[in-house]
Amino acid sequence: MAPTMIGKRIEALDMLRGFSLLGIFIANMLVFHSPYFYIDPHTYFTTPSDVMSFKLVNIFVEASFYPIFAMMFGYGLNMQYEKAIAANRPYAPLMAKRMGILMAFGLIHALFIWSGDILFTYALMGFIMIIVVRIPKKWLMPLAVLVYAIPTGLLITGTYFLTKAAPGKLMEGFADIQQIERAITAYGHGSYGEALAFRVTEWLLIGLPSVFMGVFMVLPLIIIGTAFSKYKLFERAAEWKGRIAIVTIIALAIGVTLKSLPYMDVNAYYNTLIQQLVGGPILALGYAGLIILLCQIGLFLTVFRPIASAGRMSLTTYLSQSIIATLLFNHYGAGLYGKVDIETGTLMAVGIFVLQVIFAQLWFMKFKMGPFEWIWRKGTYGKNLTKKEDNAQLL
Fold this sequence. Notes:
Layout (H helix, E strand, L loop, with lengths): L4 E2 L2 E2 H23 L7 H4 L3 H13 L5 H21 L5 H21 L6 H14 L4 H29 L11 H13 L2 H26 L1 H12 L10 H19 L9 H26 L3 H15 L1 H16 L12 H22 L7 H11 L3 H4 L7
Antiparallel strand pairs: 1-2
């Protein structure tokens, strides 16, 4: 079985990216409709429906879909690199230009739309990958594990011993009451200018520091995706389906177990770190493997092919999710901030994503790429867009 192709695109790759965007949106919805950055969610949500809804999102969704998107970003980076090598044209200048434009997208998104932006981080990691992508494939996976495991292991170990030395101290003051009130005032009751001022501060205090943490949390995932690309994971999925199935089953079992740790001992903060930093990526591998295997089934591709359309225009899908959600929840829009429960927010995310899938299907009936993708490509290639345009699925 050969991978299903659309032109030069690998359909399963777009499918995986589409599903990851849905999961990311469901997780991000917690931030869109509540002051999630500043609360202890295990104590902030008190109604039975919210407690159960958060538990499901926390275990099965949160921190388990952005790793997929990051790995697919790395997959696309290597596709671009290999295409440049095959065409005997410089890779670094073109990729640097692409990452510069993506960084501009991310900065505009973070400051003027939503402070939880990830594009700026991806762009910064993309600059690093201009060098890393040249490393032989046999070294990429060990490098990624090393870069991720050492700081993560030190953080979890340090937290464990601090927790044992002073039980309960790490969680004291975890909920920032003052910032919760400021967030509700800015987003729930403020004008666009007031929301903008708080958003800028929020990004400088939370978003920008997390960008630099991306070297240890996001870059390794991108490197893993690059390694998968060099090994031609999607192109050889049918050949390797037995191995993929074994990894999938193991990753799903371990991932769900680790993601459930905080509910075994909610007061142990190190369990939350294990859940997010270890369980999240492992469960992501399980989800990715499952979708890759399902993409070998014709009926699955037929039924869920529209989701691949949303993945094909992933930059547009991601940015439009923020635009729609902020207009729904912020006071300068529909003003629903703090007025919906988690279940409703999750259903809203799914509903909006369905509309995005329909839009993508209709869009591709006439156009070859999404609107924001077109701006990105046009900025990269300029007047030579139609001559040099490639289809390497970077985003």
